[in-house]
Amino acid sequence: MLSFTECRVLVIGDIMLDEYTETRVNRISPEAPVPVAHVRRHWSVPGGAANVARNLSCLGCGVTLVGLRAHDATGEQLQRLLEKHGIKAALEFTDDRPTPSKLRVVALGQQLLRLDDEEHADLPSDVLERVWQIIETRLSDVNAVVLSDYDKGVFRRFNGGDSLAARTIKACHERLIPALVDPKGTDWQRYATADCITPNTQELANAVTAPAESFALLADGARALMEQYALPRILLTRSERGMALLPRAKAAIEIPTQAREVSDVSGAGDTVIAVTAACIAKGMDWLVAARIANVAAGVVVGKSGTSPIELAELRAALLELEDGSNKELMRLNSKIYSLERLKATVDTWRRLGKKIIFTNGCFDLLHLGHVQLIQEAAAQGDKLIVALNSDSSVKRLKGPSRPIQPQKARAIVMAALEGVDAVILFDEDTPLKLIETLTPDVLVKGGDYDVQSVVGAQHVMSHGGRVHLVNFVQGFSTTKIISEFSQ
Predict the structure, then answer these.
(1) Are residues 343 and 201 in the same domain?
(2) Is the pLDDT reported for residue 51 higher than 80?
(3) What is the mean pLDDT of the chain?
(4) Is pLDDT at 474 greater than 70 in this prediction?
């Protein structure tokens, strides 16, 4: 089983605090033609190089983070978050700028506005010298080094052309430590001789002055950069097209995307370089590392906001890739899960303090009663799982003429409903196996049941959960609809 517990990675770069305010928008302001956003909740997570470190920590690596922060409330909050995630933070202080932060205002999963609080001026050379002293003392016991450049000052040139990036890469070569760089800007001389650079398409296009839509021209430009700066490889992230590993002396290797549905690309590049670094620290070759990083990126872009990859999620995604069961269906919508991946996701939700709700049914022809059930179920907690009987299960329960809609259609329709966070198919006659595996906090069924007859009720209640029965909507059922239209 994939494990990174023996891997030790040093992350150096520009750290920041990513803040989110979730809102509900339902009217336009009478004062100006702008939406009125009602605040529902606010949360913060490590961003920039700190998000790279968070990804590595979630994978089980030993992580040390080197960067800069100010003596301010943002810096204090970021420091606490790093400690919470088990990251050793070796941060130097600077008083000439705030700790960078990005506040995203979100409504219905979409960003309305982003507010950046940061300073772009060059950092004083004495501050960067102090950062270098920290880096030097941390290089003796690591398996890989990541340079995460967000152009906030840590890797900018100082003292007539010097750079912490160049110093660090040179020191890594002397110690035979692989150095990986997530670049920013077009000054790649700073990154010369690094073992791997991980630009996205636009970053590479800017560096080689080629059109971002032409992969052939980008690949040619990448080869020129690799020759110019003695770079053995570039790992290009290509958004919906996946990734490409560009070795200096060999043909490009394209890696198709593993994303099922893109929700938010924030932090996806951080996940790519973190997973790649972890795999290299473990001793894997670069192509294997790139393929695993591609799978990880497919997981995180299906999440909202800056979110890391959990080891359990990565293991589950790799298992899905191997067995291929329901693979096409899961790629159609990010809410449709295999059991392995859903179990990993539920474990993550629980660590975040979320209350898990579970309901199930055939949901063959969606009607008012179904919608009311879903809405009331979603109101019982934070994350709603809907388990659907597979086609074979429905036939056994309802007869050979059912279902009317195949499982693929039923799953996609259910996943599209607001309030539904996860959809999973099951082949058994009852969802007892799922309930015992996931152990939800609340089990929801229609009012035509009683608590004693609800499958899984005893298991849920024995673990401190409860059963919630939704009032049955008279006059609405799939059987009744079929009967009326067949007359």
Answers:
(1) no
(2) yes
(3) 89
(4) no
Q: Would 409 be classed as within a structural domain?
A: yes
C-alpha separations of 50 from 147, 186, 357 in Å: 11, 23, 32
Instruction: Residue 358: give the domain boundaries.
Output: 339-486
Told to judge if 421 belongs to the known catalytic residues of this protein, a careful annotator would answer: no
- Cβ(234)–Cβ(199) under 8 Å? yes
Answer yes or no: do 311 and 374 share one domain: no
Where helices occur in 335-424 by DSSP H, the ranges are: 339-351, 368-378, 391-398, 407-415
Is residue 139 in some structural domain? yes
- Cα-only R_g, the chain: 25
- The strand pairing partners of 352, in sequence order, are none
Does residue 109 sit in the same domain as residue 252? yes
Give me the catalytic one of 182, 264, 270, 364. Answer: 270
Residue 177 one-letter amino acid = I
Q: How confident is the model at residue 325 (pLDDT cuts 50, 70, 90)?
A: very low
Whether 204 and 95 share a structural domain:
yes
What sections of 327-477 are H helices per DSSP? 327-332, 339-351, 368-378, 391-398, 407-415, 432-438, 457-462
Tell me whether residue 83 is in a domain. Answer: yes
Query: What's the average model confidence in pLDDT over 339-365?
Result: 88
How many domains in the chain? Answer: 2
Span 250-276, average pLDDT: 82
User: Which of 323, 347, 382 marks a domain boundary?
Assistant: 323
Q: How far is CA 61 from the centre of its chain?
A: 17
Q: Which whole number is the average pLDDT over 113-126?
A: 92
User: Is residue 435 one of the residues assigned to a domain?
Assistant: yes
The region, left, alpha or beta by phi > 0 then psi within -120 to 50, assigned to residue 318 is alpha
Q: What is the pTM of this model?
A: 0.72
Report CA-CA distances (Å) from 460 to 12, 386, 401, 402, 447: 45, 16, 33, 30, 18
